[in-house]
Design a protein that fits this description.
This protein is an alpha/beta fold and 556 residues long. It contains 18 helices and 22 strands.
């Protein structure tokens, strides 16, 4: 009998879960509370309660080759860093290609997920849902995959800002920001220097009278555009990943910080943080230095207090007549439909084995997918988690003992605490390469690079020296993809394709006569040296001289 799997959420993680269930012969039923797929990446003018929401101009910070699903490359003509509307186009292509939509029940909210009375034996779950008409239903599932992400509940710590109740202007969380036009010629403060905060600050600064960017700690700013104009995440290969493991953390940070300060001095721009480069989730923005340099953005310390329409900062400076404050202060995650003894969340922390499985369930039939904050793209990670989870549900992969899982959880928490500054955003951090390899090992799909170097050197070298694109994890093992090799060998062509929008004939290098002249002169001198005793005779017969010189000239 086919095992039925409930998938909660129809965003990028939910789509990957449906696909992986189908790959493994499971029967997925996806419950999506809205009327469409896409989750976080679907723009809506009016934010919905307990749902992620983005602003109109959002462009993703990971390039298309690094963010695609591992067996479905993004079309070559799509730009490398895509607008949210193009990401939605890609999701629709993926869903249509693998016929996923028919497995989704739209406008259906999950009210409760609880263990059945015989859970220790069956591993089954009771799932209660409600549709848009208020009709409630109860279902029985053999397994559950939760894919609601971690951008649902805005974190708005107003208690940290004295006098906010006296503020005469408007304030809201960054999830409520949509477009800049309303704030033309106004004074605006943006609180927070993460990716959303900086993107919103840069966009608003083009129309505002003055924008103030308030930050407690500062940040290291990276560019999407890296060496020679390539996407920054395409520069990360397995050689660099290995170097990160062997080079001391402090040295690694110093090298990176020196590189970033060569682009612009972070101290000069009042951005330099006290923490090291790899101790915080990176902020990517190519325009911020220019906006600071042109004076449209002023970087300020944390807000000390509000008073009427004035905002006082920690350095004693005051911004008068402020019209708007945008709090880009992150999000909190929770699972309100789950009992706390199944998955408990406190201060944005939860205990999951490799960020997926609750370790102390009698049966491993519940998986949390996409609850990570990667230094890289989330889509391939969610897909890899789903591939692992569905293999566990089928019994093809066994989880270790409870003690071993708890030890792994504790080790990861200690490592994270040691590396990152204390923040609610640093509770689910993972490094893309290490984490993908770790989960791929569980599934049995981690690429065997040494073997490839011996059997397919061209492909092996691409895996070592090229970007660590998701296709690498479809070369072998369960559900390998016949097109993976070709996708890897053509990935750079897809990076180049969208930029080739006009003929750009480079002038052909003129053939230099220097080397032929030098070689000819050398040949003449060598011939003269060899035949110095017969030089007079040779000069009297130039034809003989030329015949002998030809031996030393380069072949035509």
């Amino acid at each position: 009998m086919t095992r039925r799997v409930a998938v909660v959420g129809g965003g990028s993680s939910g789509l990957a879960c449906i696909k992986c269930c189908l790959d493994e012969g499971l029967e997925p039923v996806c419950f999506e509370s809205s009327n469409d797929i896409g989750g976080l990446w679907r723009f809506k003018e009016n934010p919905e309660p307990d749902r992620a929401s983005i602003y109109h101009s959002v462009i993703i910070n990971t390039s298309k080759e690094m963010m695609c699903f591992s067996d479905f490359p993004i079309p070559g003509h799509f730009p490398n860093f895509m607008h949210n509307s193009l990401i939605m186009d890609y999701f629709r292509m993926y869903a249509d290609h693998f016929q996923l939509i028919k497995h989704i029940r739209f406008n259906t909210k999950v009210l409760q997920v609880k263990q059945r009375y015989d859970f220790s034996h069956s591993g089954q779950w009771d799932v209660e849902t409600e549709n848009k008409d208020g009709k409630k239903e109860k279902h029985i599932f053999d397994a559950v995959m939760i894919c609601i992400g971690h951008h649902c509940h805005p974190n708005l710590p107003l208690h940290d800002f004295p006098g906010i109740d006296t503020f005469k202007g408007k304030y809201f969380h960054s999830r409520d920001y949509k477009t800049p036009e309303e704030w033309r010629d106004k004074k605006v403060v943006v609180v927070g220097i993460g990716n959303s905060g900086v993107d919103i600050a840069v966009e608003l600064s083009r129309v505002t009278k003055q924008l103030y960017l308030s930050t407690r700690r500062g940040a290291w700013i990276l560019n999407r555009v890296w060496d020679n104009g390539w996407p920054i995440d395409m520069s990360i290969n397995r050689v660099l990943a290995f170097q990160r493991k062997v080079i001391p953390f402090g040295v690694l940070c110093s090298l990176g910080e020196k590189r970033l300060n060569q682009q612009f001095d972070h101290s000069l721009y009042n951005l330099k943080p006290k923490h090291r480069l790899f101790s915080q989730h990176p902020t990517l923005n190519d325009e911020l230095p220019n906006r600071i340099l042109s004076g449209t953005i002023q970087v300020k310390p944390n807000i000390c207090r509000f008073q009427g329409s004035s905002v006082e900062f920690g350095d004693g400076s005051v911004a008068e007549d402020v019209d708007l404050v945008v709090f880009a202060t992150g999000y909190r995650f929770s699972f309100p439909f789950l009992a706390s003894h199944v998955v408990s969340v406190s201060e944005n922390k939860t205990s999951l084995y490799k960020y997926v499985f609750p370790p102390e369930l009698d049966r491993p039939t519940l998986a949390i997918i996409g609850l990570v904050q990667p230094l890289g793209a989330i889509m391939p990670i969610s897909e890899m988690q789903a591939r692992w989870a569905t293999r566990v549900f089928k019994g093809c992969v066994k989880l270790p003992s409870v003690a071993a899982m708890l030890k792994d959880i504790q080790c990861k928490q200690e490592t994270m605490a040691k590396r990152y500054v204390t923040s609610h955003r640093h509770t689910i951090q993972v490094d893309y390469v290490n984490y993908m390899d770790e989960i791929a090992e569980q599934v049995g799909v981690r690429p065997s690079i040494l073997r490839l170097l011996l059997t397919d050197p061209r492909l092996g070298l691409n895996l070592i020296l090229g970007p660590i694109t998701p296709y690498q994890y479809r070369l072998r093992g369960p559900r390998k993809w016949a097109g993976a090799r070709q996708a890897i060998l053509t990935q750079w062509a897809r990076v180049v394709q969208p930029m080739q929008t006009r003929p750009c004939d480079e002038p052909k290098a003129k053939r230099s006569l220097n080397w032929p002249l030098i070689l000819t002169a050398g040949a003449v001198c060598l011939a003269a040296y060899v035949y110095q005793n017969n030089l007079s005779a040779l000069l009297q017969d130039p034809t003989a001289l030329l015949d002998r010189i030809k031996v030393y000239l380069p072949a035509q």
